[in-house]
Amino acid sequence: MSIASEYRDGVVNLVTAIADTQEENIKRGAKLCADAVKNGRLINVIGPGGHSNIAVEEVLWRAGGLVHINAILDPGTNVIHGAKRSNIIERTPGYARAVFDSYRLSEGDVLIIVNAYGINSMTVDSALLCRERGIKSIGITSTSFAHTVPKDAPSRHPSGQNLPDLVDVYIDNHLPLGDAIIKLPGMEQKMGSTSTYANCFSINLLMMQTAQELLDQGITPAVWQSANMPDGDSLNKRYEDELLPKIRHL
């Protein structure tokens, strides 16, 4: 089998597993998100650690994406400001509290926490802060690392807790242990990461199910048009005018 076909099959199997097993959890999460929009709130999304931020960027100002998304893109864990720096900060206990305060997350909000591994300090602290502040939480991760990485590993929150055990709704993205899935002959370390596929596929399913939930309640969801379409700028302007003061990264 060629590298291309092996990687293709691996990714197809991954997203198929998500689609086949997570429908009910996605519907539960969508209900929380739809309630937030219906009540005049934003859907907050955080990817506390490295490349998990990509899933947050995926749903901000995205063609075909929900308008009412508040992306939390703290520079501390964004790899654009330093990949190793991001790794250090995501392992810093207590850092999430400052981020929550900065973005003014409070009781009655909903927060989607997307993290490929679900074990680092900022991820676990984000879930614990949701409990503390009365914020409904939706976690997108898998248990492959949570069930394998030792409780005292440096990559973990000091408590050894895992994201799936702390959130109101857990969406299993079926990420395999180690993330990468392709073994090249003559090389020990695998290549071909899967976490971005897993995270982005899962959160897009959640966004679409949220839209369906709103439609079922007689509410037409606000959705972005591609700005590259001839009428994209004019169609998006009404939403931009409304939400520019509310969404920091818009």
Give a topology summary:
Layout (H helix, E strand, L loop, with lengths): L2 H19 L1 H16 L4 E4 L6 H6 L10 E4 L10 H8 L4 H8 L7 E5 L6 H13 L2 E6 L27 E4 L22 H22 L15 H12 L7
Helix pairs in contact: 1-7, 2-7, 5-6
Structure description:
- With 250 residues, the protein is an alpha/beta fold.
- Helix 6 (121-133) links the parallel strand 3 (110-114) and strand 4.
- The mean pLDDT is 97.
- It has 8 helices and 5 strands; from the N terminus they run ααβαβααβαββαα.
- The chain has a 5-stranded parallel sheet, with helices on both faces.
- The longest helix is centred in the last third of the chain and has 22 residues, at 195-216.
- The protein is 42% helix and 9% strand.
- It has helices at 3-21, 23-38, 53-58, 83-90, 95-102, 121-133, 195-216, 232-243, and strands at residues 43-46, 69-72, 110-114, 136-141, 169-172.
- Helix 1 runs parallel beside helix 7 (195-216), helix 2 crosses helix 7 (195-216) and helix 5 crosses helix 6 (121-133).
- It has a single domain, classed as Rossmann fold.
**CATH architecture tag:** 3-Layer(aba) Sandwich
Largest beta-sheet characterization: 5 strands, parallel
Overall 3D shape: globular
- Which residue ranges are poorly predicted, with pLDDT under 50 across at least 5 consecutive positions? none
Helix count? 8
Give me the side-by-side strand order of the main sheet: 2-1-3-4-5
Question: What is the end-to-end distance?
Answer: 44 Å
CATH fold-level name: Rossmann fold
Share of residues in helices: 40-55%
| Average predicted confidence as pLDDT | 97
- Beta percentage is 5-15%
Give the radius of gyration.
18 Å
Say how many strands there are.
5
